[in-house]
Amino acid sequence: MAESLDSKELFDRYGPHVNDTPSGGWEGRTPDKLVKTHCCFCGMQCGIQLAVKDNKVIGFEPWEEFPFNEGRLCPKGVKRYMQTHHPDRILHPLIRENGKFREASWDEALDLVVTKIRAIQKAGGKDAFGMMSGVSLSNEKSYLVGKFARLAIGTANLDYNGRFCMVSAGTGNKKVFGIDRAANSWADIPKADVILIAGSNVSECFPTLTDYIWRARDRGAKLIVVDPRVTPMGRTADIQVSLRPGTDSALNQALLHELIRNGWVDLDFVSKRCSGWEELKASVAECTPEWAAKICGLDPELIRRVAAVWGPAKKSFLLHARGVEQHTKGTENVMSLINLVLATGRIGREGCGYATITGQGNGQGGREHGHKCDQLPGNRDIENPEHRAHICKVWGIRDEELPHKGKSAVEMFEAADRGEIRGLINICCNPIVSHPDHNFLKSCMEKLDFLCVIDFFLSETARFADVVLPGSLHEEEEGTVTSAEGRVIRIREAVSPPANARRDTWILLELAKRLGAAERFTYSSSEEIFNELRRASRGGTADYSGITYKRIEDEMGVFWPCPEEGHPGTPRLFEDHKSKHADGLFHLHTTPYRLSAESVDADYPLLLTTGRSVFHYLSGTQTRRIKYLVDQAPYPVCEMHPKLAQKMGFADKQLVTVETRRGRMTAPLFVTESIREDTLFIPYHWAGRQAANQLTLKALDPMSKMPEFKVAACRARAATKDEAALLREDVKGLRVVAGDA
Amino acid sequence: MSVLIKDFFIDFQRCIGCTACQAACSECHTHPGKPMIHVDRSDLGHTPQTTPMVCMHCKNPTCAQSCPTDAIKMDENGIVHSSLKPKCIACSNCELSCPFGIPIVDQKIQQMQKCDMCFDRTSEGLRPMCVTVCPSQALFYGTREEIAALRPESHPVNVWKFGEQRVETRVHVMLPHGINEMVVDPMGLDEAQSIADMAMRMKAPGTDVSPKVFEGGLPMSDQAEFL
After folding, report:
1. Closest residue to A240, CB basis, from B44, B134, B208
2. Helix (H) or strand (E) holding A47
3. Can you tell me whether residue A491 is helix, strand or coil?
4. Which residues in chain B have Cβ-Cβ distances shorter than 8 Å to A652?
5. Most Cβ neighbours (<10 Å): which of A135, A395, A610, B154?
6. What ipTM goes with this model?
């Protein structure tokens, strides 16, 4: 039973404070060297040069030669260097004692973690101890975590924060294509004639991708954006479809209905290259635009217009992201969109493409190599005997030493709530902010007998920990990541971790050694881990075996699959019009519309949806500590349409309290015409009383186990004086500090 | 041997309001922590449109004309520079007279500072910092011919009318074909052809954003007003 430590001393030392001063100050910033690496935020993984002086990152310089972004960056990338030597960095291992953290030696902290793991497992079985991870980690670390949890801890219960991100896309992609990767590199976007973006605020979540879309539009391409909000990209779209949250599959069924009715289907492709066409066709026979318009809250004519632009196009690119994926029917939403791509046969050719835009820094690579509860490296299935045999061989173990499928993220916390999971190691994840239904998660955290957190800052989750191990940032360790387009790229150790903080890899290897598994973790460098990952991935769908560090450096990245060293890599999948399923067919699935977990009613008459701001990344552990970003977006605001505001008697900037069946939060209102009249929007990057996830629900997609962040029934009222006072206190708590940690 | 300083183009419709340009500009060693480019929200609450503004580098700069001490100079490349420190009396005439609202007088250092199109970078053949990082390429550096070829749906314009004043600028804005000058009439805003409004009209037809305006806009920096 460990409560969150929230003392003033702890905040004074570990923040979050906001930093606005480069390491060493503004004067005389002449770097010793520029290190070519990548931004740590988001799946674009833009090339960037970090300016380094005396083992300190003191600034940045654009990296114009890197082909994806050619120097372009968003404000997070520009100011990212402010995190490295931030005064809030954890510099020593911390152990909870008498309601406080005290600094400890590595030996003491690591031994305590190992003792607790073994004690909990002795009492409750191997799986009573779990591990949560995240895909801001490099490929090497993601692979290592997968092996560490299974072989060193010996638990089946390992999962990762992709479960809160894009996992419905991966599930849908595997079902239809037999492979989980963007079908094309971004280079195909500018060549398309129509671009359909469903549920992605590209302009705020993936700013550097917008130029690719504009290059298509400069050639006359049409842009369709489907989103309950008019985003900066949607503002300029040819067609903006502001649909009701949770109704994507209905819209897409009606679009397919229209494609069929108007003869905009590639019958040769669907009959020869796909399975399930007749069933799919029959399933949308009644799905008229009028039917969908009622569900989606749209004009049926608008749906016809979208179909008329998408249907007859020669070349097209369909992009989607969290807006369609974070639903209890996320996998169906994804497959309903893929149906629009495959019905027209526009895939596997120049300018004809499809992709989910992966959100996290290594959201692509991190989800391929054994980080998930049901997965082994190379995107293998942990329950497939052949797949197990291959990995057992690479790891030098017997089958009975390899755990089977474990619990997914939310299920793991539910098991903790029931007392089945008693201990947890958490790395690269801040579930107390990013997990839905914050109050539920808080009680789970408090029920754990033991929590170890590996992080570079004292995240809100780390405040619940018994042991905190100070780890490393993206710029403090060599490795690779895989960007959202499937390009494997190199990240660089620009500087070493400060003081007594250690590289994450070192921490995991030390723990493995102390858990008695040293002989299975004998790596002397990140490259050695990568080379083992290559062997482990060989023959899997995510095959990295032909990719070497040298090739990545020489070729500015290599696209997987790349099965041998002479192979050029694969920027575009499906050029042979064959899927990666054994039968080579694209498996079409019907996606009958069904309701979200919660619908509006008299008590909770409004819809709530959540998302990102361009100024913050995920749970904000990094970006809430950088002053420039905090100045632009210091706290969440609740978006509301002026008509609704007028009806409810609210004024812009008024403090309102939004309530759901799970919790409530107070935020200033931002009255804007860019949102639907029946929907509120709150960004999720903040913690505590400002966490939007106090409101969301943990209902899961039965296929992908992804929670429904995008739809909740809610209501709003004016904030009370007490609520307003608390919010003012929270916001005034933002403090600036200068100087290195 | 001097490098040719090319032209600067602002394509308002592409701006996504991320302010990467501001963030990067504020990294410059000559004005650390203080951006010289500014991203405004045109009509917050009505539209997500944002507008980046750099110094337009007028061919006959009003700031220099209004300077009582002749402290503001244009160089042979047509770049208008920050005030000369020894001459500047920080009177703010430039700040008040500039039709684009660009110069900022820093009373602490008694000098007017403004965008010089990153002369330190452009003189070495690099692009200005804001252009280099701009993720949507709402900011572009090159020749008129290059941008005309890249973006055939619009064309560069550098003639402005502010009431009676006609201004020709070194920096261009991208506008729809058929519009050859920007008319800004501060006296008759119902006919508003402000920069923001102009940019909004460039929206491709078919968007579902209602054109109605309501009260409640505020610049981003005013968000903390409820405190």
Report:
1. B208
2. strand A47-53
3. strand
4. 45, 215-216, 218
5. A135
6. 0.96
